[in-house]
């Protein structure tokens, strides 16, 4: 047994890092570097109880993975456990959610769009938009809200929502936002990764209304292109009211063709607390985590944002050979910004039984960086022959500013040799830069399960009994 006083002395790698959880004592030293939330965050609990931290990050107890991993680090019992006062549940004020969503966590909420609702409309209805939170939803009074702008090359500015709505031209942009871990479950079929086991529903599309970030920085923050060069500015950092922060390259922020928005409307309605009210960032063509919700402060900078969502392993794609980041200099690994080309079969669903000799296939395709979809191919003979799909909604977007997904449909005939048995339908997309999806998941597997865009497979069954 160990006392709490003994545990409190173990706060560095030199004398090992210990924590307590309930009545146990755990040596987490060797795990620190692999913590998905970053080493700095987990070090806040060094020599202390982690129970209050897990009160905020309740996904640790909601999924068995973290508890099982912690159990392997147990070194003994706590001799003098005391009741940890956890206080009120910080998630009590979270908004109600649509019951049709597929919930992976409730605290914080992480929920994806079910396949049955994904293609009901090209623009995703607000109530069923996918949800990816890291903390409780902040409660903010829009009348008291202020946006702070600061950093080298800018004048410090404080703006109210009224300022943003009256001093700037309202802009609109339609974008698809996809979580970096979308389709992680496909990578888990190769080898387990670290993170939420998303299907393919961590993606949604909306038309956002707000003000251009570029105009706010240039005309209100006093930033100039000359100041960017003189000061060596490379990033714009966005600090959220829930303490999360992320950054984007300053070239994207200031490009007149980047369409980066500070949004206060979503699909023609006032932005909800769930999706970032009173103000959120919309960065078209970029991974979801950079579309920061509840933006409170904007900072121009020479360096990227601090924290696990930018500099840690949370959003960095590593080699499939790396199973542990011990000894890896993560600063040399680029944080995900633009995402690779993607396509998914939404219909038919896996396990569907069809008596028809022609299978009607529907799905969506999308590529990061505003790259439009050039073509979607569908095969039912493992890629030996292909049928080119008809591109539907979204196909008329500007080929280099195609921020939203494209729906597609194809009709494929079941070959004689495959009738009356299992048929695997697969798809691949090619974007306007002629990037295409890789065939297999194995070569793109990575520790965090990011950027999964291998060919999407759906197994169905052809019933040929009536032909006899």
Précis, in short:
With 468 residues, the chain is of the alpha+beta class. It contains eleven helices and 25 strands. The longest helix is centred in the N-terminal third of the chain and has 8 residues, at 64-71.
Q: In words, what does this structure look like?
A:
The structure is a single chain. Helices cover 13% and strands 28% of the residues. It is of the alpha+beta class and 468 residues long. A five-stranded mixed β-sheet has the order 8-7-16-11-12. Strands 9, 10, 13, 14 and 15 form a five-stranded antiparallel β-sheet that branches. The model has no long low-confidence stretch (mean pLDDT 93).
List the helices and strands and how they pair.
Blueprint: H1 4-7, E1 18-21, E2 24-27, H2 39-43, H3 51-56, H4 59-62, H5 64-71, E3 74-77, E4 102-106, E5 109-112, H6 115-118, E6 131-132, E7 147-151, E8 157-159, H7 161-167, E9 171-178, H8 184-188, E10 203-212, H9 213-219, H10 225-231, E11 235-240, E12 245-249, H11 250-254, E13 261-266, E14 269-270, E15 280-282, E16 295-301, E17 342-347, E18 353-354, E19 358-366, E20 373-379, E21 387-388, E22 390-391, E23 406-413, E24 422-431, E25 456-462
Parallel strand pairs: 7-16, 18-25
Antiparallel strand pairs: 1-2, 2-3, 4-5, 5-6, 7-8, 9-10, 10-13, 11-12, 11-16, 13-14, 13-15, 17-19, 19-23, 20-21, 20-24, 22-23, 24-25
């Amino acid at each position: 047994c160990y006392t709490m006083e003994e545990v409190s002395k173990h706060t560095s790698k030199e004398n090992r890092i210990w924590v307590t959880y309930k009545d146990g004592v755990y040596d987490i030293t060797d795990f620190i570097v692999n913590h998905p939330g970053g080493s700095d965050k987990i070090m806040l609990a060094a020599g202390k109880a982690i129970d209050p931290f897990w009160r905020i990050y309740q996904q640790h107890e909601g999924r068995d993975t973290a508890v099982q991993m912690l159990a392997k680090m147990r070194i003994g019992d706590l001799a003098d456990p005391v009741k940890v006062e956890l206080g009120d549940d910080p998630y009590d004020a979270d908004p109600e959610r649509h019951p049709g969503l597929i919930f992976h966590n409730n605290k914080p909420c992480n929920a994806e769009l079910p396949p049955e609702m994904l293609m009901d409309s090209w623009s995703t209805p607000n109530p069923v938009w996918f949800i990816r939170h890291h903390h409780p939803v902040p409660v903010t009074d829009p009348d008291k809200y202020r946006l702070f702008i600061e950093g080298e090359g800018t004048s410090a500015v404080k703006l109210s929502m009224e300022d943003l709505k009256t001093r700037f031209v309202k802009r609109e942009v339609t974008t698809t936002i996809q979580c970096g871990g979308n389709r992680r479950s496909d990578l888990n079929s190769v080898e387990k990764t670290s993170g939420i086991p998303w299907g393919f529903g961590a993606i949604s599309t909306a038309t956002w209304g707000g003000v251009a970030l570029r105009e706010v920085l240039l005309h209100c923050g006093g930033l100039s292109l000359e100041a960017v060069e003189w000061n060596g500015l490379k990033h714009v950092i966005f600090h959220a009211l829930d303490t999360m922060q992320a950054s984007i390259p300053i070239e994207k922020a200031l490009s007149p063709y980047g369409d980066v928005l500070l949004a206060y409307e979503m699909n023609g309605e006032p932005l909800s607390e769930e999706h970032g009210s009173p103000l959120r960032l919309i960065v078209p063509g970029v991974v979801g985590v950079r579309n920061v919700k509840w933006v409170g402060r904007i900072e121009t900078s020479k360096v990227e944002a601090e924290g696990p969502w930018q500099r840690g392993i949370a959003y960095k794609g590593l080699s499939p050979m790396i199973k542990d980041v011990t000894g890896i200099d993560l600063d040399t690994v680029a944080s995900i910004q633009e995402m690779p080309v993607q396509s998914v079969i939404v219909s038919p669903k896996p396990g569907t039984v069809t008596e028809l000799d022609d299978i009607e296939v529907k799905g969506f395709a999308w590529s990061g960086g505003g790259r439009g979809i050039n073509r979607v191919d569908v095969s039912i003979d493992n890629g030996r022959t292909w049928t080119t799909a008809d591109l539907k909604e979204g196909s008329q977007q500007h080929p280099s500013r195609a921020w939203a997904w494209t729906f597609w449909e194809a009709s494929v005939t079941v070959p004689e040799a495959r009738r009356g048995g299992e048929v695997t339908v697969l798809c691949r997309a090619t974007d306007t830069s002629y990037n295409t999806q890789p065939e297999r998941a194995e070569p793109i597997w990575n520790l965090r399960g990011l950027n999964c865009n291998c060919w999407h497979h759906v197994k169905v069954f052809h019933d040929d009994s009536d032909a006899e």
